[in-house]
Design brief:
There is one protein chain. The chain is of the alpha/beta class. The protein has helices spanning 9-17, 83-94, 98-103, 113-134, 149-156, 162-182, 195-207, 229-241, 261-271, 298-305, 312-322, 336-344; strands at 58-63, 139-145, 186-191, 212-219, 222-227, 245-249, 279-284, 291-294, 327-330, 350-352. A hairpin with a 2-residue loop joins strand 4 (212-219) and strand 5 (222-227). Helix 6 (162-182) packs antiparallel against helix 9 and helix 9 runs antiparallel to helix 10. The two termini are 13 Å apart.
């Protein structure tokens, strides 16, 4: 089993100061994708590697969003018992050959919004299914996903079937790409500045006539802003004058802002075609950072998510404090959510699933 070393406090502080190439985004064409998951990818670290024992922990399962896709992403799950069942269900519901997307499609093509979202969704479902098979008695007390990852969280929590989740992910990806074609915009990650100062920057941009909003509240010192292209440029000049890192993401739309209203309306139509379970395990919503256990709440929350900020920092607090989760596990491709969780709550263990010890392993 592949394992990864947990961060020391020094590693966390170093990462918080580290420069990043962009908030995990990929793609520059109109229908390409942004990593609405998180922000900069985890940088490689030297040092010993050790598997993490989760015995007795109260777990929160975290699922990433788009931007973590890459060619051959599915190879690690190709021999998994759940491979055929999961890929067949998602393929039939979405109309995509997800096995080919996971095994054969090149990284460049996977930057397409619709392909990126269904690929990451499927990979994350496989990761979750295999984690549950390997750790059937682990106490998974709550769920959350960043942007796209919220749909995987809903499936894992029992609110949606895998097929209905795939239908919604497909509709969502197509709707977001369509808005990008008709309403150009952009996004940028502001790193090193507290939210109050980012908010002041946004107000200064708006005073010039620009349209700029907070799109992702990722950690205490990482906020993603989004708006029209001129506003993104103006915001960059102000941020650099203040000495902050400001990484413009290679995307063509302002996701998680009012620009996404047409996509939200399209998603509303798709939401009428699926059935949410009446009750389910708690899922902390992006839109309000509160736990929800009733399926009736989710159509409005899913629609609202597209036009409002992803409140990820508050989500981590809710999982640890309100829901008493003692260990946060980043499931699916990548490990960026674990990194953001450590930066938000350094005293709460957060681990990528690859680092979890097999059942019965000595650690």
């Amino acid at each position: 089993m592949v394992t990864a070393r947990e961060d020391t406090p020094e590693d966390v502080r170093d990462d918080a100061r580290a420069s990043a190439a962009g908030a995990g985004a990929a793609g520059a064409a109109v229908d390409r994708t942004v990593d609405l998951t998180t922000g900069p990818p985890e940088r490689p670290r030297a040092g010993a590697r050790a598997a993490v024992d989760i015995t007795g922990e109260r777990i929160a399962a975290l699922f990433p969003g788009q931007g973590v896709q890459r060619s051959g992403l599915g190879q690690q799950w190709r021999e998994a018992p759940a491979w055929h069942e999961v890929t067949t269900a998602v393929s039939e519901a979405s109309g995509h050959d997800v096995a080919a997307l996971l095994l054969e499609t090149d990284t460049e093509e996977l930057t397409r919004t619709d392909l990126a979202q269904i690929t990451v969704y499927t990979a994350s479902l496989l990761s979750w299914t295999e984690f549950r098979r390997a750790h059937p008695t682990a106490e998974v007390a709550a769920f959350a996903g960043h942007s796209l990852g919220e749909y995987t969280a809903l499936v894992a929590a029992g609110a949606l079937t895998a097929a209905d989740g795939a239908r919604l992910v497909g509709a969502r990806g197509r709707a977001m790409a369509e808005v990008a074609r008709h309403t150009p915009g952009g996004m940028a990650a502001v790193m090193g500045a507290p939210l109050a100062e980012v908010t002041e920057l946004i107000e200064r941009v708006r005073a010039t006539g620009g349209h700029l909003w907070v799109a992702n509240l990722n950690s205490p010192l990482q906020t993603v802003v989004a708006g029209d292209r001129e506003a993104i440029e103006t915001g960059g000049a102000l941020a650099r004058d203040a000495g902050w890192r400001y990484n413009v993401l290679p995307v063509a739309a302002a996701f998680h802002t009012p620009h996404m209203a047409p996509a939200a309306r399209a998603l509303t139509q798709a939401l009428t075609t699926v059935a949410f379970a009446p009750t389910h395990h708690p899922v902390v919503a992006n839109a309000d950072a509160r736990p929800h256990r009733e399926g009736a709440a989710w159509p409005a929350l899913c629609e609202h998510q597209l036009t409002s900020p992803v409140r990820w920092q508050a989500t981590v607090h809710t999982l640890a404090h309100d829901l008493a989760c003692t260990h946060l596990i980043d499931l699916g491709p990548g490990r960026t959510l674990a990194g953001l969780a450590r930066r938000t709550l350094p005293d709460v263990p957060a681990t990528a699933v690859q680092a979890i010890a097999p059942v019965g392993a000595g650690v």
